From TrEMBL:
GO terms for cellular component: cytoplasm; ribonuclease H2 complex. The gene is rnhB. A divalent metal cation binds at D22, E23, D113. It is found in: Cytoplasm. This is Ribonuclease HII.
Amino acid sequence: MPDRMLETERSRIWQGPVAGVDEAGRGPIAGPVVAAAVILPEDFMLEGVNDSKLIAPAAREALALAIRAVAVVAVGQASVEEIDTLNILHAAMLAMQRAIEALPMRPAGVLVDGNRLPERLPCPGLPVIGGDGTELAIAAASIIAKTERDRMMRDLGALYPGYGLETHAGYATEQHRQAVQQLGPTPAHRRSFRPVRDMFT
């Protein structure tokens, strides 16, 4: 794991277990936004834990399994309909809030990737810009959120064939844009995001 992981220092402000929180799926034009909350054991040591975007898919899946085997993990999501209604920022905050609330135990505090916290938390929280690269529990949460969302997108790819959702996870690749233009959007597409939005204006 990177030497820059500093969670032990930050978490000293609270007495008790600390949850790391991160989300995946702000940028795609299809699919939900998914968040994870992870409480790691105090003696947690696992080589390779880092920002999920920097980890190859196969390694990320293996790390997610290893994290789930020893950590307290919960996942929350906000639907496409909620993204279109609330906007992606507020939907991401809602997904994070749901992940934290779904934890089977209440943490003493939460470290949240980014520059803001969800509005309603059951415990104190601290936003950490770039936290998925500096905080071990946030990095673990980023891995869980990304692998869980990828699984959901594979399911949506099977439900809506022809769009490649299982390969690009809903991002606006050229292949994806062409499929939307040729086939039209599915219920899994975010109508508030371009180019999907342009088809309804």
